């Protein structure tokens, strides 16, 4: 993230609002290595931050007005009154930043207004947390400008509340925490029950490997129902099993738990995914900590099969990435993020990257799918002030 980007966003702010911003902040998108749909089951996840960020130039106001502008949306400045912000009133992009302001105020923080200009390089609808990046960058800027003294995980909780209540998307806490708390060169092992965290060194280049993100260009949307249905199914499973959350079913008790679910076939599949996925996160952590990085490949492959067959949130494009990458020598591959489109990740030896990229791209062309976007993901810094 260069000084030049901060300058460009600050200059645009000045053109729009006729004054210098009080600061410029950045918050990244994320890719999740393992631990999918476990976050709203109080389970484990393991994301890392992408180099792609949402950047915000912000100035504080004291007159109860919020003005919002985005370089990525064709519309002018939106002006809102803070005392008129209300959940689910706004179905456009402004619900994300406005929702954060609403959540901060609802939590008792004295936000008195702001001018905000945003610009993001996080691909939207690609399962790479473009929404969380927008939320977190606004939260961090306001935290600084209004001296709120909130920690990264506290900002993440407020951003999740903004998305759940103001935007109306029933997401978990992973993406906001990843954007707020990830560190360069590390994956974040996060316990979503209490938000305890461990930074796990994750430097694939040093070991001659790469992690590719393949954006299938199939757009997904969390508010469109399927995500909510999975979440409701998991909650039903927890209720039937008499636990607070599926996190409370130990892997060793999985068979007994499945037997107790009787003929609830759909719930059984959801429960099986969550319980095995939590175990996979713990396996990946332990393999990385013992230096057996290549051995995480098969765990990623199992994770994909579980999301495809048990959780049923993959799609032909994601399956094609995984199957083609594995057939051309990848160490592991799986869909990442919410599913129903978005991106897959591919773990590969450095020397195989070009061949895998070519084969996947050709397979998409043969299948008549839109050309995927492939890039290397390197664990990058979490949210921070640039200026
Ligand atoms: C989306 C959600 F926003 C996250 O909370 C998480 O549930 C993820 O899908 C699936 O792991 O990114």
Q: What labels would you give this structure?
A:
single chain; Galactokinase; binds 2-deoxy-2-fluoro-alpha-D-galactopyranose; four-stranded antiparallel beta sheet; galactose metabolism; 11 helices; galactokinase activity; six-stranded mixed beta sheet; 387 residues; metal-binding; alpha+beta
Give your account of this protein's structure.
It contains 11 helices and 13 strands. It has 387 residues and is of the alpha+beta class. The chain has a 6-stranded mixed beta sheet. α2 crosses α4 and α3 crosses α4. The longest helix is centred in the last third of the chain and has 25 residues. It is globular, with a radius of gyration of 21 Å. The structure holds 2-deoxy-2-fluoro-alpha-D-galactopyranose. Keywords: ATP-binding, Carbohydrate metabolism, Cytoplasm, Galactose metabolism, Kinase, Magnesium, Metal-binding, Nucleotide-binding, Transferase. It catalyses: alpha-D-galactose + ATP = alpha-D-galactose 1-phosphate + ADP + H(+). This is Galactokinase. It is found in: Cytoplasm.
The helix-and-strand class reads alpha+beta
Overall helicity: 40-55%
CATH topology of one domain: Ribosomal Protein S5, domain 2
What percentage of amino acids are in beta strands?
15-25%
CATH class of one domain reads Alpha Beta
Main location: cytoplasm
Function: Catalyzes the transfer of the gamma-phosphate of ATP to D-galactose to form alpha-D-galactose-1-phosphate (Gal-1-P).
GO molecular function: galactokinase activity
Subcellular location: Cytoplasm
Layout of SSEs?
Layout: H1 3-17, E1 23-32, E2 44-45, E3 47-60, E4 65-70, E5 78-81, H2 95-106, E6 114-120, H3 130-145, H4 152-167, H5 174-181, E7 186-191, E8 196-201, E9 209-215, H6 226-241, H7 254-260, H8 265-289, H9 297-310, H10 316-327, E10 332-336, E11 343-349, H11 353-367, E12 373-376, E13 384-385
Parallel strand pairs: 4-6
Antiparallel strand pairs: 1-3, 1-13, 2-7, 3-6, 4-5, 7-8, 9-11, 9-12, 10-11
Helix pairs in contact: 2-3, 2-4, 3-4, 3-5, 4-5, 6-8, 8-9, 10-11
The protein binds 2-deoxy-2-fluoro-alpha-D-galactopyranose.
């Amino acid at each position: 993230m260069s000084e030049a980007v901060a300058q460009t966003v600050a200059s645009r702010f000045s053109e729009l609002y006729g004054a210098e911003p009080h600061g410029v902040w950045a918050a990244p998108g994320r890719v999740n290595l393992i631990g999918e749909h476990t976050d709203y089951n109080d389970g484990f996840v393991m994301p890392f931050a992408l180099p792609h960020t949402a950047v915000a130039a912000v100035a504080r106001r004291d007159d109860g007005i919020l003005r919002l502008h985005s370089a990525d949306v064709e519309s002018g400045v939106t002006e809102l009154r803070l005392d008129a912000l209300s959940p689910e009133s706004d179905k456009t992009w402004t619900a994300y930043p406005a929702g954060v302001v609403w959540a901060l105020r609802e939590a008792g923080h004295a936000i008195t207004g702001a001018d905000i200009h945003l610009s993001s390089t996080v691909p939207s609808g690609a399962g790479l947390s473009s929404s969380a990046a927008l939320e977190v960058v606004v939260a961090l800027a306001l935290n600084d400008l209004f001296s709120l003294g909130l920690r990264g995980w506290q900002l993440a909780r407020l951003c999740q509340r903004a998305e759940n209540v103001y935007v109306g998307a029933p997401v978990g806490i992973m993406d906001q925490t990843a954007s707020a708390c990830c560190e360069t060169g590390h994956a974040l092992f996060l316990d979503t029950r209490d938000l305890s965290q461990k930074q796990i060194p994750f430097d694939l280049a040093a070991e001659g490997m790469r992690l590719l993100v393949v954006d299938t260009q199939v757009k997904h949307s969390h508010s469109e129902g399927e995500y909510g249905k999975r979440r409701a199914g998991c909650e039903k499973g927890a209720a039937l099993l008499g636990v607070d959350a599926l996190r409370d079913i130990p892997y060793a008790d999985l068979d007994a738990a499945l037997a107790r679910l009787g003929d609830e076939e759909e719930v059984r599949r959801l429960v099986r995914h969550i319980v095995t996925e939590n175990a996979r996160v713990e396996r990946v952590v332990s393999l990385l900590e013992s230096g057996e990085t290549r051995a995480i490949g098969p765990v990623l492959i199992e994770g994909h099969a579980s999301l495809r067959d048990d959780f049923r949130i993959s799609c032909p494009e994601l399956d094609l990435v995984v199957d083609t990458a594995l057939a051309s020598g990848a160490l592991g591959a799986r869909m990442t993020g919410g599913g129903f489109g978005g991106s897959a990740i591919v773990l590969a030896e450095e020397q195989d990257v070009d061949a895998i990229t070519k084969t996947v791209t050709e397979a998409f062309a043969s299948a008549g799918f839109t050309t995927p976007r492939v890039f290397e993901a390197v664990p990058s810094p979490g949210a921070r002030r640039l200026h």
